[in-house]
Amino acid sequence: MFARVCVLIGMACVLAPVSPAEDAYTVYQGVVYNHPARKPLKLTIFTPDDGAAKHPAVLLIHGGGWLFGTRYQLDWYGRQLARHGYVAATLDYRMMPRYAFPDCLHDCKLGVMWLRSNAGAYGIDPERIGALGNSAGGHLAALLAATTPEDGLEPLSAPAVSSAIRTAVVLYGVSDMSYYRNPKGYIRFFGLTSRFIKNFVTRRYRGEGDAFDVASPAHYADESMCPTLFIHGTEDNLVPYGQTVAFYGQLRRAGVPTRLITVSHGHAFDFFVPGARARIFPEILEFLDTHLKGTGSPPHQPRN
Length: 304
Known about the structure:
It is a single chain. By secondary structure, the protein is of the alpha/beta class. The protein has one domain (2-293): Alpha/Beta hydrolase fold, catalytic domain (Rossmann fold). The protein has ten helices and eight strands. Helix 3 (103-117) packs across helix 5. The longest helix has 18 residues, at 276-293. The protein is globular, with a radius of gyration of 18 Å. The relative contact order is 0.14.
């Protein structure tokens, strides 16, 4: 039953590129960025063919309830971003039931590190990297935006490269995991959801704090968080709209540049509502242009 919920929730290796003649971008498929447990994790990289030496980059993180999904889900966003002067990279990451938090976050951080380490090969400005994620991917994008090395969530075998990002776009992502301790209504599914989430946040956690807090982006939000755009539907039955409203308010009070776009749709509306992606993309692009192409805030700094 939980799978029914999830379907709604949404080293350098340069391979031979595929260049669509009708578009001014190049696609690099199957670029390996990590080898956890002998399983290669890959990127699809979209690079603009505009002749510029350096471009801002956006890591795209797919949804799927931390249980399933592929990097190909966000190819549409990758193509659109490349057409507008961004290097975009969709990534694989480790998922349930075999892997749990923070494995998925480690992979996203390693993805940022890989883009920064291999910036020259793909025309990336290593100081201008952001993230965009939907649903479970939105949760991970928000954690990239909110956490610093002081939070103890950096990959243990990571290279000596920063995982900081300059900005994040969070589409209907979970910000407070504690809601799923005892979720109400449609999402309960006879207790299956709460058991799944408990397993997701506690199975690998060995710290002293509350595991649900440790996995919650809102737990880390303060003035050091990078600019973040939230997009959420008021009819979302899987990730409550109120979570995003509260997180957005938290960032505003902390003085973090942020914006909330509210739509009158449910979860994963940009996949299920015809034309929704095309309508919201210009606002996503405006936010990214401000904070990745403009003079927005630098990557967030470690807390004092």
